[in-house]
Amino acid sequence: MSVKNYIKHNILRVQEHKLNSIIHFYNKVCGMVYECKTVSNNDYPYCSDGKLHLFTYKHTDTQTNTHSPTSVCFVVEKTKFSVSYRNQGYWKIGLVLQDVNKAVKYLNKEGVSVGPGSQFVDVGFLTSLCDPQGHCIELLQDTFEGNFKERKEKGGPLDQPYLPTLGQITIRCADAEKTCKFYSEVLGMKLLCTEVPGNRYPFTLYFFAYTQETPPRADDLAAVENREWTYQRPYCQIEIQHRHNTSSDFAYVTGDEQGAGTLGHAGFALHVEKELLQEIAGKCEGAHVLGENLVYLEDPDGYLIQLSSD
Length: 310
Fold this sequence. Notes:
The chain is an alpha+beta fold. It contains 5 helices and 16 strands.
């Protein structure tokens, strides 16, 4: 039985002439299952042609993962939009792997430009690349460089010994206290881990998810012991970056009407039980209720969030 509350998908835009390249990249190169789903334009206002292009790492029936996987969801946008812009709020998705450099070698053979992984302080062993539309993807190893143990099995997606996980959707926030309170007290997510890379990198990362699991050092969420554990979870997290050096009146561009035009990131979707959906809708004054099973709202920074209980 799968967990009922989970991050359903991250919603990105793609130009019509790049859709086939996106399908090839995520399906054929990255090994995700592709599905084109027809939806109502009234229920999905960010979807102009009524189609969601979903890419998912799905476990087979012989595997025991009880967590519903998170999809990368693309919607075709016929007008011009921006993937990179000033004061950008949305950052990336994170694919969690057992062996980052094995994936790098595989991607290079497939003609994808990506450099080797490296250990970023005590945050993680990682590298990054862009998909054909320019959206950022981080490849994150589930162990630090010093704890890595090579496995001989191969043949899975990205030449990995086991199925990768869409582990993080990463956004930036202006006010950490307000944003963390929203994700924990309004959306009902659990804070699993916080990461402060040090004075050289003045920012903090917060990892939220729908789970009842407890990290190894629940008494100190900033403890390094929680980091690899968080990356090894079989479910997606909302990763929030807060930069320490921003002014009190600073705001990230997170929505289409904030000066950068239509954005490459449309929002993200959560699946929650009906009781929680109604509770969340009651807490948010600006919530747009489209029925008993579908609600739209914005977080404190203006990111669009779709909640459904179907």
